[in-house]
Structure formats: C-alpha cells, structure tokens
Amino acid sequence: MKTKFLIICLLLINSFFGQNSDSLALSVKVKWNNMPLIIDSEYISKNNDTLKISQLSFYLSNIKLVFDDESVFKDNKSHLVQLKDLNSLNIPICKKNKKIKTITFSIGVDSLASVSGALAGHLDPSKGMYWTWQSGYINMKIEGISSSCKTRKNGFYFHIGGYLAPNYALKNVTLYPKSENLELEMNLAKLFDNLLLSETNSVMIPGIKAMELANYSVKMFTIK
Amino acid sequence: MRSYITYFLIGTGFLVLVGFITKTTTPKYIDIPKNWPKPVYDFKNNPLTEEGFLLGRKLFYDPILSKDNTISCASCHLQATGFTHVDHDLSHGIEGKIGTRNSLTIQNLAWSKTFMWDGGVNHLDVQALAPITSEVEMNETLENVIIKLQHSEKYQELFYRAFGTKKITGQYTLKAITQFIVSLTTSNSKYDKVIRKEEKFTEMEQKGYDIFKQYCTSCHKEPLLTNNGFKNNGLPIDKDLKDIGRMKITQNSRDSLLFKVPTLRNIEFTFPYMHDGRFKTLNEVVKHYNSGVMKSSTLSKELLIPMNLSDNQRTELVSFLKTLSDKDFLFNQKYSYPK
User: Fold this and answer.
1) What is the pTM of this model?
2) Do A117 and B129 touch (CB under 8 A)?
C-alpha cells in the first residue's frame, strides 16, 4: 500500500518535472532565403527594397499532427514565437514515437480568444500582441526599416490581424515533413518579394491590406 | 516508525499545498435589481472578491498606470459626475494632450456588450488597455505598468491577497481593474424608486416621463437607459475631428457616423453631452432632438420625424431626466479615492 502510494507520487513528480529526451519539438528557423535571418542586418528583396528587420513576433496555434497510422495529436494552445527570444523558437509537442504524415497549424490566434477578455500566459495582453483601441490579437508583427519607406525614420510596420469576418486574418498551414525532426523554416524573403515597401509600409489595422499580408505570410513556411 | 514519518511529511506537504490553493478571499457580489436583465459580464471567469475590488480601486486611482505617473483613470472619470470628465468637450490626458472624444461614464457596465463610443472594445477586461496605451491619454504600455507594479511591495501584497500570487501579470492587473469597474452599479435614483413604488414623480416629471416613453426609449431603453446599440443621431460632422464613429471599427459604410447609445443615468451631472461634448446643457440636447437633427443616409430611422415638442414639453422632459440622478452612487464612499 505504502509503496504503491510512493510510486504514484514519484510518477506524478516525474511527469511534472521530467524532461524526456525523446520528446518531439517544433523548431522554427527564421531565414532570409538560405541564410539565417539576423535582427538589424541588411537584406535586399526581389523588388530591390533594402531592408532591416527589427522585430518579428507571431502566434503559432492549434498544432495538429497526423501520424502514419492515422492517429492524431492535437495541441490547442497558442504559442508566441519571437525572434528575439531563442526559447520561443522551440515548441515542445509530444513524445517522439511514430512517423508523422502531416503537420497543421494556424498562424495567429482564433477569434474565440479575441473575444475572451484578458487571458494568461502567451496570450497575456502585456506581451504587446493585443490591439488596444480595438479588441483582438495581432497574429503577426513584423517591423523594420527600409530606405524605400518615406515614413518617419524610414520605418515599416506590419501588424497583421483581425478576428471579424470578412477580415478574419487567421491562416491555416498544412505541411508534409520528410524527416523525424520537425524543422519549420520561415523565409521572410517570400513575404517581402511580394511587396513594394514604397507603397506598402504601414498596415496596423484589420482590413483588406492585412488579409493580403496574411495570405502572403502563409507562403513563408516550409518544413524539412 | 519510518512509515509514520513518511506519511506525516506527505500529509503536511499536502496540507500546505491545499492551504495555498484555498487562500481565503471574501466573495463579493454586485446588486442586480429586481426585473433587470441578466448581466452580460461573465463573473465565472473573474469571480469578484473584496480583495480584488480593493486592488482594482487602488489601480483606478493610481497615476502609476501612466507613463510619467501623472494621469490616473480618475483623471477623466470622476465619481461625483458619474465617472466622467465634466466641463471638457474632449478629454485631455498626459502632458495636457487632447483626445478626439468626450470620455464616457462608467455606470452599470456589467450590462454592456461593447465599450467605447465606437464599440471597438469587445470585453470589459481589455477596455483599460485603450486609455493606458493611448498617446494622448496615459501613453504607457501594459508591459511597463507591470514592471512598475512588480517593484512595489505594497502592490505585491495586494495582488497576493486578491489572486494568491505576488507575480503580477497583465491578466491579473486588467481583471482587478474590471472588478472595481464592474462594481460601479447605479439603481437608486428617484426614477428607480418610482418604478419600485417607493416614491412618486411630480406632475412635471410624470409628463416628462410620458414624453420620454413616447420618443426616447427605443434607444434609451429602460431600465438601463441604453439599448447597447449604435446610432447616427443626426449630429452634423465636426469638420476638424472628422470622426466617422463605428465605421472606423467595422469599415462598413452603413456604420458611418454611428456612435454608442450611452446610458442616461446621472445625466444631470455628466455634461457636456455627445461623443464630442458639443452640447453643454440638457436643454441644448433636447433642442437638437426636437429640431436640429441633420438627415443623412445612416440617420437612425426613429429620428426621421421631428418631435415638435413645445417649450413646456421640453422643460418637462428635462425635469424627468433629472430624476435619473443617484446620489447614493455619486457619493458612495466605497467607490471613492482610497484613504
């Protein structure tokens, strides 16, 4: 009786604190074409915009894995991924056991969270990813500078979001991993190759422009 | 013997854990008057406690929420005037900067579905973010507010009492502010007493009430004196402010020039009136509805036919509006600056 109780206690402790070496994590590699993206480094887009990225933050939510045997793993949480925070680029998922057929996730936060008031953890409004004059989460925030922008201090600001139809900016992505390691590549060049920074440099409200950017943002993601 | 010690240790550990979880707070409830609708605010997600209310009240009156520690919520929301900013058409904030709208009152918000003149805010818990971050109001970030609060031992203690943790988060800060805001209920005006058959209107007030029921209650619905909706009430657009109202949020041209229908409770004290504070007196307000309504494509259909009230009738209507004042609310010590 006593031993049983102790074993249960130990198991509980283990499940709380134990870091399993064969656990599966999604690691996000932020890139500019083939190079790792570095904050405040200079890059040139296909449209000849010279630019530097100063901030990249986005939500990765509702991760769903479908395994070879058709079994499914679901994680309904929203993870805040920030380029300046290395820990956030590694999202623990589940135990590594079966071969993965597809991975699906959303970029952003679903509309339910945007109407649920003040939430905790990654969704805490103090994370700088919540709009203030109008409720709702910012799904993705990209900021930087470019000489192409005739704005104050040449800044560009993309705060992509919106939870109300027809401007509901949440996007789903489905990818087919080829290896056991879930290495998610996010290539920012794919977004800026679609833009002319002299024309599009400040999108900070939900609407048609934000929807366009949300559609482009999907194309940034690939998996190895 | 050893087994007893083990059980003792496990037992003690368990009790300490339970002690942490069930740390005592005093539950608090808002008054829901008889025959009123069910509140919109979901108290299950933010159960009111005396400790949370006191913390929220301290935050409400503390300029620590603003960037240079000069502006508190109470700077623009004064209790004695129904928690709004009297005498200013447009409210001003940090460094004397002036906003684009007249601050709204804070009354019976547990029954409100949306917040702000344009309804841009969809939940009471996140309402405070707007003034905290507005460049012309408090010009601060929630992130920085938390850093400042975390440095204060007094606040650590108050958060511990309210939420059982000294680790201050944005969620707890906002929920505490809501606990105070949502407790600001007013339901003890002469009008309420008449409805409860405890008092009687004067003849003039009664006539005013009859006019009110004929012309006003489709939007200023009893008992809250608002239908929670948005309307274009025929105000010509201010050429400098060019405020399109609700359309800014929905980007739908049908919402052009629509603004929140505000409650009329304590209206005697909440001057000036309208979203841009253009009218200083209730007489001007009534005159506008009587003969000043400007027609446009989004004008509220209720205002298409002019009221054509006589001078006497307008006076009667104003005398009814003054029965909506609730001195028990305006001077309630519980809602005042914490001493």
Assistant:
1) 0.89
2) no
